[in-house]
Design brief:
Layout lengths: L13 H11 L8 H14 L4 E4 L2 H12 L6 E4 L9 H5 L3 E4 L11 H7 L4 E7 L16 E4 L11 E5 L12 E4 L3 H11 L5 H6 L5 E2 L2 E2 L14 H12 L1 H19 L5 E3 L10 E5 L2 H10 L25 H6 L3 E4 L7 H18 L1
Length: 361
């Protein structure tokens, strides 16, 4: 179905296209100087000391879990309400996922629930800035916190923080991600793992020559992956980053239209937090099927976006004893909030809800 107002739309401008064309005219279309430039720009913008770009947010998570040393049998406390990409890499390592309940205001992982689940076997805690909402999780124990901030580019709350620049995020690199490291040692290790375990800086110092005077110029001492990004992606990221403030301002404006005109109506509550980059506009509604139908009939796309992970077969296929997650499972739904949603579009969506859903309830 072709919607009048789709739920998502990639942020690609004329500047993005020009940046890609400029890269295509150089010799570096794979990982090259643009990747370094984008990492520096992100570091400067968000005060990130050790940013490392990857080819996806999932790859960034894989690196973070590797660096922590998560292995078979380790307990990892995580949220059920997230993209499955948050938790699938943990399964691949044989970790035991301990699902915590979610907060009743933000739908992010609950601090109170996390505190009750920590044991001597807890290897890590995975926090998610869901929908753009900043969620602070702390612990007095020496347990690393990985924050999946794929939906909230720029927040740095956690020991290891990852971003995603996948197609529909705040701005896109086509696909891509970033891992923010806690210190220089971890940064060097992650940088090696990103590209097969090879020290690219050392190779570059020898002008990429593998041999000099009949001696190898580099060795491979650590197992790594093919997680490196491309200069094409980095160029797109640089173009999008320049518009970051404008992107966030527009999303917050649309979000506030929804909040001021809909929040508080009977049977409707918007999900929000103290700090919110508004990647999603998510509502809790009494009758989700009817709410979705009203908007679909008006040409407005809606969706859940996230499905609770614990009911997927790979995670056990069974609803855990998570009181608030269980209570709102059939209530949450997201509506359009991207840069293509104009003020008039937002008012059209509001009126469709008021005339259809709320009127009938």
């Amino acid at each position: 179905m072709e919607y009048k107002i789709p739920l998502f739309w990639p942020y690609i401008t004329h500047k993005t296209k020009q940046a890609v064309n400029d890269v295509l005219d150089t010799r570096w279309v794979g990982q090259g100087p643009k990747v370094d430039e984008f990492e520096k720009a992100m570091g400067d913008k968000f005060n990130i000391r050790y940013p490392l770009m990857t080819n996806s947010g999932t790859s960034a998570l894989e690196l973070a879990y590797d660096l922590i040393g998560i292995k078979k049998g380790d307990e990892v406390i995580t949220t059920p309400l997230t993209c499955s990409a948050t938790n699938i890499p943990l399964l691949r390592r044989g970790a035991k996922l301990i699902f915590a309940d979610i907060d009743d205001s933000t739908l992010c992982i609950s601090q109170n629930s996390v505190d009750k689940l920590i044991t001597d076997k807890t290897k890590a805690i995975v926090n998610v800035n869901l929908g753009g909402i900043k969620n602070i999780i702390t612990t007095s124990k020496n347990i690393p916190i990985v924050t999946d901030s794929a939906q909230a580019i720029g927040y740095t709350n956690g020991d290891y923080v990852i971003y995603s620049f996948q197609a529909i995020k705040h701005f896109t690199t086509g696909d891509g991600g970033m891992l923010c490291l806690p210190n220089g040692e971890r940064y060097k290790e992650a940088k090696l793992k990103r590209w097969f375990g090879i020290d690219r800086d050392k190779k570059r110092s020898y002008d990429w020559q593998a041999y000099k005077e009949r001696e190898m110029t580099f060795d491979i001492e650590h197992l790594g992956y093919k997680y490196q990004p491309t200069d094409i992606s980095a160029a797109m990221g640089l173009a999008g980053l320049k518009d970051y403030d404008e992107i966030i301002e527009h999303r917050r404006t649309i979000f506030n239209i929804y909040k001021s005109k809909l929040d508080g109506l009977e049977g409707i509550r918007i999900v929000d937090g103290e700090e919110n980059l508004c990647w999603l506009a998510t509502f809790l509604v009494d009758d989700r099927d009817q709410f979705s139908k009203v908007l679909s009939d008006a040409g407005i796309e809606t969706n859940l976006v996230q499905v609770r992970n614990d009911i997927y077969n790979i995670f056990g296929g069974k609803r855990q004893d998570l009181p608030f997650m269980n209570r709102i499972e059939h209530q949450y739904i997201s509506i359009p909030i991207h840069h293509k949603v104009s003020f008039d579009d937002a008012l059209y969506i509001v009126n469709a809800i008021k005339k259809g859903y709320h009127h009938e309830n």
